[in-house]
Design goal:
single chain; about 90 residues; mainly alpha; about 0% strand
């Protein structure tokens, strides 16, 4: 008889655990609150702003790299002209 009462109490415990688990799962599936939605919207806006800033900085970097290449080319041309001038003066 003790075996049957043990099975009965295990069955009761299993059913009770299932009811508690079902309650917990059902309570976790609620819709997001207004605060959650506002927070998510703020995060979305911050992400969009950061992506825009990255795009702007990449464009600025590309422009600065073009300017640098242009100035390096000008410097190289001026150095070549200086060398030619020094060579002409030496002759």
């Amino acid at each position: 008889m003790s075996c049957l009462s043990s099975l009965s109490s295990l069955r009761y415990l299993g059913v009770a655990s299932a009811v508690v688990a079902l309650f917990l799962v059902a309570s976790c599936s609620r819709a997001p609150s207004q605060e959650d939605m506002e927070y998510l919207e703020q995060r979305r806006q911050a992400t969009l702003a950061a992506e825009l800033k990255v795009t702007e900085l990449q464009a600025e970097k590309a422009q600065l790299e073009r300017d640098l290449a242009e100035r390096q080319a000008t410097k190289k041309a001026l150095e070549a002209k200086l060398a030619a001038t020094k060579n002409n003066l030496a002759n």
